[in-house]
Design brief:
single chain, 179 residues, Rossmann fold, 5 helices, 7 strands, 26% strand, globular
Length: 179
């Protein structure tokens, strides 16, 4: 994986092969950040990265100047890797090793962007639980955005707070906003 833009532009990061992850493709990531760039000043927002995996999305936000990034993943290897990269590049990423759903049930952390990249094989009710918990627990700041990455074979448009979706190859991003 590589960082697309910002302070660490073009840096390649090689994750250990034994991590249980599917990193967002560079093409999809670049498209996502083009959308976000038209809506947010990266140095003025906070981000919650759920199912953070390799930290790919967190690194991109950090490279673009975001100073408040929280990455949550239940895999110890993923958290350890994110911490190593964050330390190496002096990135402001706070990691939390936790089951994402347990974290969302208890969290009071409010951010501008909540990004979730759960396993594509999740059953639909697991996908539906993410926006339900984010909005029920008021985790988005005013004008905030929840983004869920999923397979093009998964349709989340019927879920509450759904705004729109964008497809990039086999990847899809569904955007949710407070009404």
């Amino acid at each position: 994986m590589r960082i697309i833009s910002g302070l660490y532009k073009s840096r390649k990061i090689v994750a250990p092969k034994n991590l249980p992850v599917r990193p967002t493709t560079d093409m999809a990531k670049e498209s996502l950040f083009n959308i976000l760039n038209n809506r947010f000043y990266f140095d003025a927002i906070s981000v919650l990265d759920l199912f953070a995996g390799t930290g790919n999305i967190s690194y991109e936000f950090a490279s673009r100047g975001t100073q408040q990034i929280t990455s949550v993943d239940q895999d110890y290897g993923c958290i350890k890797f994110i911490n190593q990269i964050a330390e190496k590049f002096n990135m402001p990423i706070n990691t939390i090793k936790s089951d994402v759903f347990k974290f969302l049930e208890k969290s009071t952390l409010q951010t501008h962007i909540v990004f979730a990249d759960p396993p594509y094989a999740f059953p639909e009710e697991q996908f539906a639980k993410i926006p339900e918990l984010v909005f029920q627990n008021n985790l988005l700041l005013e004008d905030g955005l929840l983004i869920i990455e999923h397979s093009k074979h998964t349709d989340l448009s019927h879920l509450s707070q759904f705004s729109y979706s964008k497809s990039y190859g086999g990847n899809m991003f569904s955007f949710f906003e407070a009404n």
